[in-house]
Design brief:
Helix content is about 35%, strand content about 20%. The chain has about 100 residues and is an alpha+beta fold. The chain has one domain. The termini are far apart.
Amino acid sequence: MKGESVLKKNITPKNVCDLLNEMLKLDYKCTEKLIEHRVPCNEKIADHATIQVQQFKTDKFPKVGLMGVINGLFGIRKDGMGAICYEIDFGKIIRFKPTPEKK
């Protein structure tokens, strides 16, 4: 693969989920740390139209992580959700998937 172009012209939420699920299989701890890690951000990022951030009452600053940035690439749904989510079972990420539509 090295030396040849593999740039994709179109990426879907399912493509991203497939890659993240592959990463889970290849190196669970690395993938989990990338997904769970959040860093403080300023109000400009917190107020961005599509980047998803979190801020708990105990947090001095809002925080953003990889999922918030990835979801920001796809935009935001009318219900405020991003395009991609993940399932947790007993505190462990078990898979990534496109966010289901609310009923």
